[in-house]
User: Fold this.
Amino acid sequence: MPDYKNLSPAAPWRELIATDADWAAADPAFLGNLLTSMQIIRSFEEKVLELAGQGLVHGPAHSAIGQEGGAVGSALPLRATDQINGSHRAHHQFLAKSLRYIEPDGLSPTADLAPSVRDLSHKTLSEILGLADGFCHGRGGSMHLRWANAGNLGTNAIVGGGAPLAAGAAFAHRRAGTGDVAFTYFGDGAINIGSVLETMNLAAAWKLPLCFFVENNRYAVSTTVEESTAETRLSARGSAFAIPAWKVDGMDPLAVYLATQEALEIMRSGGGPTIIEADVYRFFHQNGPLPGSAFGYRSKAEETAWRERDPIDRVARVLMERQILGEAAIAALRQRCKALMDDVAAELIEEVDGKRRIRPTLWPSPSFRDFGIRGDLSEFEGVRTAELETFAGTIEPEAKFVDIVADVMQRRMEQDPRIVVMGEDVHRLKGGTNGATRGLKDLYPDRVLGTPISENAFAGLAGGLAMDGRNIPVVEFMYPDFLWVAADQVFNQIAKARHMFGGDSEMPLVLRTKVAMGTGYGSQHSMDPAGIFATSVGWRIVAPSTPFDYVGLMNSALRCKDPVLVLEHVDLYNSRGPAPVGDLDYFIPLGKAKVLRTGSAVTILTYLGMVRPVLDKVEELGIDAEIIDLRSLDRAGLDWQTIEASIRKTGNVLVVEQGSIGTSYGGWLAAEIQSRLFDWLDQPVQRVHGGEASPSISKVLETAAFAGPADVETGLRTVMASQGRPLP
Assistant:
């Protein structure tokens, strides 16, 4: 018979209950501020639902009526410089943090509402209606609300998607040493999402000042918590990660406030993350002005029981019991808030022929559609550019490629303390699995961070770090295939943030990864991700094929205010080529291709690991080919001036890439060429690419899966034969 030993969690997990004595001791001004903030939010939400019921809200209207106590109770202890983000249901949190920012001395329940409150209501409602005067100029709507000045990082329509981004803000606060914190708000649905749990682990391991605030409103649309998880006390998740956790009644805003104060004390003193679970209830359905009972998943009796615990009524009752406010004053406050929202809505809505509509002059211009997808690269004004052929310094003709990768990063980290490098094993093994970060950990121990195996969490953390603006994150994905486990953060968050939040924010982030075809690592480690990233609007892509180009392109990637994917190749790491000696400070402009060889018979467009095989095969066969190393691969970065000039001369195009046809970059490029330059083509664009299948472990099957020198020769022979000039 074995012995057993009960184990205790490494961090406390407690339920906090506000007592009558706590309510009696609460400062009257605090209680008045609490009531006024909640009433403003309630009246705002009621106006949104009214407009939604009239068909004036395009898209969802996820109201949080009933949940104001959790939002305001947690926002009132925050500083202006603390930051928050939330989920698709976050009007109340956005407004609570914004009210705290614009009225730091508090709101009086008996005073007229300040002009700042009107302006906040106007801009928030404008955003929800999709209007130009909104915080994101109408692009974010109800689910994507961002006001950076007020500490609102941006709410998120992907369940759980905001948690990693908030961790980035928390990392920035910890590194700055200000004592500021971040809060990420989400619901009972998100508590089981991998990105949230990954972020909890990462935040705990790195002692980030991040509060995971769980609004447990018991329903993910219509699915109950009991149907979703065996442990319905959601704050129990903290015990798994050694995170201190509180469970509170979210309909009791004082309890939320007290728990938040305790959590802040831990976070501001360097104790790491916290969890607060607030039991709340949304009075309406997931979306729109009807209650949940109208859809059959909740009973009217249940809804009535929760409405009797309304947090606004609770605070109002205490104010009356303590004779701080009378019933008439409370009714007058509600009327002022309602009148304000009526006035704000009247500024945006008009009636024509008996029908209400958005005032047409308030819509954003259709010409604003693409503004802010990426920046204008004005950050490169005045920089020194260079090409190998015109470089004035000393050149080492046989420099090892991977050494230059590490050297240029060391140079940039030496000159720019904002750069932070993170990824799996980048801090060990003499520079990661390939030596690309060699020596960096010894020189900058607090800026080279080995991460847990959780690409979704650390990629999203880097995105939040970039949005914060005080740091430049450099993320390494050990293999590009791992992007799929981080796809939400890579494509839904990082790629879209700049545009989604109005085009005014920046996303200075570098993602490094290596193409590993030919290494025997099989189907899940060997992809070329260029085609995937090229079709994800928002990313810039560079693919250096020589050590010299790597220096200039990495410098540009680190200076760019957009996210940049830097593609590397294992075949190039151990190759040798020309590199500067001592001078690692020049730039190669983004969007500038390079003509490596002039010719008149065919234009060959290629990149990365296929550049050298193409050059060698063309020389071997004696073809009059013009070879262009694309270098920049994204839609905005393609050097059409160079490409068009060459195609107009040759009339023929061969696109050469190594990877699978399924995730092909060349297919997209060929379609663009034929659309733009059809009249200049003597024949359809020809292509060299890998097979349909992913590379296999078998050496023979792997070689067959991706394009090599023999495939290049076949492509060259085909394109020349189509011109009536077959090769011998």
